[in-house]
Amino acid sequence: GAVVSQHPSRVICKSGTSVKIECRSLDFQATTMFWYRQFPKQSLMLMATSNEGSKATYEQGVEKDKFLINHASLTLSTLTVTSAHPEDSSFYICSAPVRDRYTGELFFGEGSRLTVL
Amino acid sequence: AQSVTQPDIHITVSEGASLELRCYYSYGATPYLFWYVQSPGQGLQLLLKYFSGDTLVQGIKGFEAEFKRSQSSFNLRKPSVHWSDAAEYFCAVGARTGRRALTFGSGTRLQVQP
Question: Angle at CA A89, nearest 5°, toward A86 and A91?
Fold first, then answer.
């Protein structure tokens, strides 16, 4: 199956700093990637859709200036949490469908756990 | 808008007992249906998926799920649970056209007693 890799898997930062999380499709191209957020003991909530070559689409209630998304190539999307605060601490997971071969299935990264002190 | 309901937040079963996790969806048409499993601190692993055809779907680790259109359900089952099955289970739906992001249920935490 297709492989999606996230980096870093864990990151701890101080309040007010910015953190970048990378999501790469290793063996396929993805014009679209999805970023989810999961709070402890809760479900995955879609934050935004990352589109290669164009602006990301954000879900209602998600601050686009805080969560900057860039889809620089067909294999890389990045999520930058700007001026992070403790309430941004969460598990962030990216996913992608295989380009031009939509079967409904998404391939998920391993997730990135962000802790803001 | 599509939605997914997993009515059981937490289920405890004895090792070797059978298991059924419930999932109900709300959607205008038949969506794609998925079950994922997540161990603590880990990412998601796909257990099985339903796209079309046979409504009884076989997955990995001995799991199966049955799509029932009349009940808008996609319940997950396993005849004999192993201690290693203890995890969080998520049901998810995806549109057949247009928006491709999956919508997840709230999850069911499975605990297995020895």
Answer: 180
3-state SS assignment for residue A8: coil
Nearest to B78 by CA among B30, B112, B27: B112
B59/A contact by beta carbon, under 8 A: no
- The distance of A98 to chain B (nearest Cα, Å) reads 11
Cα three-residue angle A60-B40-B17, rounded to 5 degrees: 115
Identify the pLDDT of residue B62.
96
The candidate with the shortest Cα–Cα distance to B19, out of B70, B54, B65, B51, is: B65
Q: What is the pLDDT of residue A28?
A: 86
| pLDDT, mean of each 10-residue run, chain A (117 residues) | 88 97 92 92 92 92 95 94 96 84 80 96
SS3 A22: strand
Contact A43 B105 (CB under 8 A): yes
If you measure CA to CA, which chain A residue comes closest to B42?
A110
Q: Which residues of B, range 81-110, sit inside 8 Å of A by Cβ?
A: 90, 94-96, 99-107, 109
